Each structure stands twice: as C-alpha cells, then as structure tokens.
Amino acid sequence: MIQIYVRKGCPFCKKVETAAATMELVSGSDFELIDAALGTPGRDVVLKVGGKTMVPFLIDGDTSMYESADIIEYLKTKR
Ligand SMILES: N[C@@H](CCC(=O)N[C@@H](CS)C(=O)NCC(=O)O)C(=O)O
After folding, report:
1. CATH for 2-76?
2. Is the CB of 42 under 6 A from ligand 1?
3. Closest ligand 1 atom number to CA of residue 54
4. pTM of the full predicted structure?
5. Burial label, 15 (beta-carbon count in 10 A; 0-12, 13-18, 19+)
6. Where are the domains of the chain?
7. Ligand 1 atom with minimal separation from the 67 CA
8. Among 54, 58, 65, 73, which residue has the most ligand 1 atoms within 8 Å of its CB, making it the best to mutate?
9. Which tens digit of pLDDT belongs to each residue from 8-44?
C-alpha cells in the first residue's frame, strides 16, 4: 500500500491529505498515513529512504518522493 509520512501541524501534509480525500482515496485502504514526528520510527524511515526528514514523504514500492505537489500528482495516477 502507498505510505504517506506526515507530521501533525504540517500544512503541506494537510494539503496532501485534503487532496487525497477530494480524489476519494481512502486512508487505510488506498494509502496509509504514518506519523513521522521526532522520535518515531516513521521519521527514521523518511530519513533512511529519502535522505531528509522533510514531510510529506511518499513511498510506494520502489517509488519515493518529497514535495506535496508531486505527491498529489502521483496520487492522481492512482485514482
Ligand atoms: N516544498 C515542500 C515543503 C515541505 C515542508 O516544508 N515540510 C516541513 C514540515 S511542514 C518540513 O518537513 N521541514 C523540514 C523538516 O522538518 O525536516 C512541500 O511542498 O512538500
């Protein structure tokens, strides 16, 4: 399943979550939201895979990306 790493209070994460909802993609079935707050395993994954701690961060198999706009475009291909 697509994994989207987010943090509470992150407006770029909220933008991705709102766009996903508008596309009628459902959290828990179409994608999984994972907390990447300081001290979480999610943050470690983001850093290990992407090289930065920035969120939102998407992982879908071998595909991974930062940048909310790119993530939204990617999700559009998964509707
Ligand atoms: N241009 C990026 C900006 C993302 C961004 O600035 N995210 C903040 C949190 S809202 C962040 O992760 N900053 C760096 C960090 O905390 O390591 C996007 O549109 O996704």
Report:
1. 3.40.30.10
2. no
3. 12
4. 0.97
5. middle
6. 2-76
7. 20
8. 54
9. 999 999 999 999 999 999 999 999 999 999 999 999 9
